[in-house]
Design a protein that fits this description.
alpha/beta; D-Maltodextrin-Binding Protein, domain 2; 3 domains; seven-stranded mixed beta sheet; DNA binding
C-alpha cells in the first residue's frame, strides 16, 4: 500500500479541512480528494463525510486512523534510517582485531561513536587468519590485522608491532641489566606459549624469530588465551614471547624486554574488502585517515 495515501488520510483527519490538508501535503485539493478516494476504494470503506464542519471521520475511519498513523510514522522512521545507512551515519559496524590493536581500536570506536551515536559497533578478538576469512565472506566490515594481504582485500599500514620477552619481575636479573633479552639466558628458561590455533600468524612469527636465532625453547605450558599466558608468566611458571601490545593487559609484576633483529617486528594494517560497498565502513575509515 502506498504510504502517501495513508499520510493523506492522517493529515486530513487531523485538519478536518481539505484545503489545509492539501497545503500541508504540498498538493492540490483535487489531488488530495483523488488520494482519499483511491484509499477508500482499496480498503473498501468510506473514511470521511463532508459536512458544514469540514471532513469528518466515519466510524470505520475512526477505527483505522490509529493504525494508519502508526504505519506512517514507521515509514518515516524507515526512510530516516535508510538515509542514515546510505550516508554511513547509522547501522551496524563489525570490526575484527587482534592483540596488537587491543588498545587503539576501542579508542577509535569511542571517538567514532561520539560523532555517530546511532551506530552499533561490535568488536571481535580474532586471529588474522579468522579476520581474513570473515572479510571475504562479509561477516566483518573492517579488520586490524597482520600485513600484507592479497586482493580482493585492501588496506593500509596502521601501526608497527614488535616482539618482546615477558618475564616475571626480578625473576631474571641478569637479563634485566641492559634491558635486552640475552639469548643464552632465553635458552635456559622454561617457556609458556600460545597454541598455534589461537594466532597462527603470531605463532609463526615467534617460530621464525626463534629459528633465526637458533633457540629451541623448553615449553612447559600452553594456552589459547593471552590473558592466561600473562597470568602464567606473572606466577613464575615461565617466560613468553608476546607482542609488545600485550603490555596493555599484562599484570604489574611482569616486565617486557624488547627483542631485536630479523623477525622481531611486523606491520599491522587496517583492512577491508572493497568489493563489498559499505558507506558506514568508509565513514569510519575516513575518520581514521584524518
Amino acid at each position: 500500500m502506498d504510504t502517501r495515501l495513508l499520510r493523506a488520510f492522517v493529515v486530513l483527519a487531523e485538519t478536518k479541512n481539505y484545503r489545509e490538508a492539501a497545503q500541508r501535503l504540498f498538493i492540490t485539493q483535487p489531488a488530495l480528494s483523488k488520494q482519499i478516494k483511491t484509499l477508500e476504494h482499496e480498503l473498501g470503506v468510506t473514511l470521511f463525510v463532508r459536512g458544514r464542519h469540514g471532513a469528518l471521520l466515519t466510524r470505520p475511519g475512526e477505527l483505522l486512523l490509529g493504525r494508519a498513523d502508526e504505519l506512517v510514522r514507521r515509514a518515516g522512521a524507515f526512510r530516516d534510517y535508510a538515509r542514515g545507512v546510505s550516508k554511513g551515519t547509522t547501522g551496524n559496524l563489525s570490526i575484527g582485531f587482534g592483540i596488537s590493536a587491543i588498545k587503539v581500536v576501542p579508542e577509535l570506536v569511542a571517538r567514532f561513536r561520539c560523532s555517530f551515536p546511532d551506530v552499533i559497533v561490535s568488536l571481535e578478538d580474532l586471529s588474522s587468519e579468522q579476520q581474513h576469512a570473515r572479510l571475504l565472506s562479509g561477516q566483518l566490515q573492517l579488520a586490524f590485522m597482520r600485513l600484507p594481504v592479497e586482493p580482493p582485500l585492501a588496506g593500509r599500514k596502521f601501526m608497527a608491532e614488535s616482539l618482546v620477552l615477558a618475564v616475571k619481575k626480578n625473576a631474571c636479573p641478569a637479563m634485566a641489566r641492559d634491558g635486552r633479552a640475552n639469548k643464552r639466558r632465553l635458552l635456559a628458561q622454561p617457556w609458556v606459549q600460545l597454541l598455534p590455533d589461537k594466532g597462527p600468524g603470531l605463532f609463526q612469527q615467534i617460530e621464525n624469530y626463534l629459528g633465526y636465532n637458533h633457540i629451541i625453547p623448553e615449553v612447559v605450558q600452553q594456552t589459547r588465551d593471552m590473558q592466561t599466558l600473562m597470568a602464567l608468566v606473572a606466577a613464575g611458571v615461565g617466560v613468553a614471547i608476546v607482542p609488545e601490545s600485550a603490555t596493555h593487559i599484562a599484570p604489574k609484576n611482569i616486565e617486557m624486554m624488547p627483542l631485536e633483529g630479523p623477525y622481531a617486528s611486523w606491520d599491522v594494517g587496517m583492512i577491508w574488502n572493497p568489493a563489498l560497498a559499505d558507506p558506514l565502513r568508509d565513514v569510519f575509515i575516513g575518520m581514521v585517515n584524518v
